[in-house]
Amino acid sequence: MTPNRQSAEIARLRRELAKAQADREVLNAALESMGKAHALLEKLAESAEPEPLKDTSETTQSPDSSTPE
Description:
- This protein has helices at 3-47, 56-59.
- It is an all-alpha fold.
């Protein structure tokens, strides 16, 4: 390989490395954000109070049973 070709290859590899490092930083930031969002959603789920179950046996009435005869 000639010195000129070597220099060109080194420059290309440096550009490729710089792009890969920039991509890694973006991915790390995205991963950190997703981790924070996950933690927040977990806290919200833990703090949410469950709704009481309704007793359907008492509330289920026929339409005729509510009118006096």
